[in-house]
Amino acid sequence: MAAERHGPANTTDYIVHHLTNLQAGEGFWTVHVDSVFYAVALGVLFCGSFYMAARKATAGVPGSWQNFVELIVEFVDEQVRDSFHGSSKLIAPLALTIFCWIFLMNFMDLVPVDLLPFLGEQVGVNYMKVVPTTDLNITFGMSITVFMLMLFYSIKIKGIKGFAEEMFLHPFGKWMMPFNFLLKVVEEVAKPISLALRLFGNLYAGELIFILLALFTLGLGAETAAETLANFANAGAIAQFFTQLILGLGWAIFHILIITLQAFIFMMLTIVYLSMAHEAH
Amino acid sequence: MSINATLLVQILVFGLLVWFTMKFVWPIILEAMAEREQRIADGLAAAEKGQADLNNAKSQADGIIAEAREKAREIVDGANARAGDIVDEGRSEGERERQRQLDSAQAEIEQEVSRVRDQLRAEVASIAVAGAERLLGKEIDANTHRQLLDSLAAEL
């Protein structure tokens, strides 16, 4: 996590630079190219590697990769069976995709914070945020999809009438219709918002801490390797280097838990919300 | 940090990934797992059946061995009895043969005795006559005393 970055060794510049997406387009029609690139790349990695396992899947003795894939599939399948009592061909693959994809996107947080942006700069890409889940668009993209599925299944299972009854007649009966509706809307809308913000907040904070830890040795980088080495050759610099190393290591180890946990929470809540959408009240 | 078209792109990508997983990953892997589960269950059942078969065969083999042992004992007993019979038979045959030979020897002896007696009887008259002639110093006509001589001979 040593600061290998060229350019101004200014703390504020460094942080802002790290929090700026590579963008294309204007106004609303802006696309965060880096977020989309890493999200798609990791999605393709997930689908491709799992597809490989599926294509070579044998009922005989499984290879180690197939074994690993089956472990995850079985884990997800178990969660879905435990929490979801309807029958749906969509929900288990959806949960698997969410878990694996979010895990992979979160995992980008453990890649040294300056490594990929540094490599990007070498080929002329000046801004790069490598963790897609630190982008609100990405987390909201998923939670809104889940929200739309919730609405779709609610209406599909209960019918327009049943859905309307649920929206207007609970919890206070027909004399409080507008109030019921307001409560229900808040309740429903809170679901995708909390899903998206929880994931975003955790990962954004984690990323930010890695960036702040990288500040310890920020001033020590120089134009050439020899100069950088010379900067390191005093007790203070060495102490800073080891402080960053130990804190970074500790945070990274702790972060392994967080990225897995956040992926798991997103998956579990998706299952639970869709399960609620399937059940009539 | 602002909401923009990235959101739409992400929704699209997410949808595609879920569709792909639903279509090409999930069912295939689950199917393979279910099939393996079935195979393992079948294998366990087969192993259990094999064990039962083995036990069956073992008890069957035990039965056959016991039967064979029984039969062997019967055969040995039979053979022993037969050997006894043969020995007995030989003994009685020997006994009969001995008796037969004994009888024939006895008959021969008796025959010889009677032959000798007959000869003696035939000669007793002339011996008696010769003895008397010696005693009396004169010739005796045997025919005259024929009756006496015959009764003497008959007493032998």
Rg of chain B over CA atoms, rounded to whole Å, is: 61 Å
Strand content of chain A: under 5%
Average predicted confidence as pLDDT of chain A:
88
Give the termini distance of chain B in whole angstroms.
169 Å
Task: Give the strand tally of chain A.
Answer: 2
Low-confidence segments of chain A:
1-8
Task: Return the string of H and E elements of chain B.
Answer: HH
Arithmetic mean of pLDDT of chain B: 90
Distance between the termini of chain A: 52 Å
Q: Could you describe the largest sheet of chain A, including whether it forms a barrel?
A: 2 strands, antiparallel
Encode the helix/strand succession of chain A as letters.
HEEHHHHHHHH
Structural class of chain A: mainly alpha
Strand order of the largest sheet of chain A: 1-2
Unreliable stretches covering 5 or more consecutive residues of chain B: none
Give your account of this protein's structure.
The complex is a heterodimer of chains A (281) and B (156). Chain A contains nine helices and two strands. With 281 residues, chain A is an all-alpha fold. Chain A has one domain. A two-stranded antiparallel sheet of chain A has the order 1-2. In chain A, β1 (23-24) and β2 form a beta hairpin. The longest helix of chain A is centred in the C-terminal third of the chain and has 44 residues, at 235-278. Chain B is mostly helical. Chain B has one domain (3-155). Chain B is built from two helices and no strands. Chain B has helices at 6-136, 146-155. The N and C termini of chain B lie far apart (169 Å). The mean pLDDT of chain B is 90. The A-B interface holds A 19, 25, 27-32, 35-36, 39-40, 43, 46-47, 50-51, 53-55, 57-60, 62, 66, 69-70, 73-74, 77, 89-90, 92-94, 96-97, 101, 135-138, 140-142, 144-145 and B 1-11, 13-18, 20-22, 24-26, 28-33, 35-36, 38-39.
